[in-house]
Here is the input.
Amino acid sequence: MSKITVIKTGGKQYIVKQGDEIKIEKLSDEQGKNFVFENVLMISDEKGNDLKIGNPFIKDAKVEAKILEQGRDKKIRVVKYKNKTRYHKVQGHRQLFTKVKINKIIN
Here is the structure.
């Protein structure tokens, strides 16, 4: 039975379990290296029976992951417009991301 975990990274919270591949905010490590998430907020089994909730984090709980890819997301367009004043501005933004695979959940 696999464990479901909530981790916090990059100012966001993610629900992960072993074997998941997720896109998160950019990490400073290189592709192919292992990374450990130490900000674990919750650990549970799939049915929700063995539930541990941190205050705010669970002590000695870790999630080990491998960095698969560093990249940039698709471009989003930011449009600013004010009617009747001829003000129209368009900007583009590509967010940096890191794709990781969850290897192990330690509690």
